[in-house]
Fold this sequence. Notes:
Elements lengths: L8 E2 L5 E3 L10 H6 L3 E11 L21 E12 L4 E8 L7 E8 L3 E20 L2 E4 L2 E3 L7 H5 L7 H14 L1 E10 L1
Antiparallel strand pairs: 1-2, 3-4, 4-5, 5-6, 6-7, 7-10, 8-9
Amino acid sequence: xxxxxxxxxxxxxxxxxxxxxxxxxxxxxxxxxxxxxxxxxxxxxxxxxxxxxxxxxxxxxxxxxxxxxxxxxxxxxxxxxxxxxxxxxxxxxxxxxxxxxxxxxxxxxxxxxxxxxxxxxxxxxxxxxxxxxxxxxxxxxxxxxxxxxxxxxxxxxxxxxxxxxxxxxxxxxxxxxxxxxxxxxxx
Length: 187
């Protein structure tokens, strides 16, 4: 509940310019819902998460999104008509994360019900792996533009010398980029 009142103004010399009657306005959250043709209720949980210690284990993050960021662990909103015969409910868990779950229910009590659920599940296989491929689009991998230095590969004939082996290794390592191996399942 909040309130507001207007104070009398003065001219700066201590004289009152205008006497204003105190006005009071009150806001009650239930007052606006009373005018609706349906009942509304719900709950929301907002928070954040952090991790400490060794967090580079793929097993730790295999089926969860554990990035430290603001999150909505739980949300549920429900509405019913005045006779409490029809309903609509929406909600979910971990809604701002890649392992979120959402639901929508609607229907008429004792007659029918429509349920819709959507779950997201990350599956991380490995962290800090390397590959020569780059991901151009979601799921489309390409090789880097331009050929690698072929001189290092063409110089090898027969058994490579340590210098030739180091040259080939240097070319291959220059193409590598770090990546986390895994995929996202949305069902």
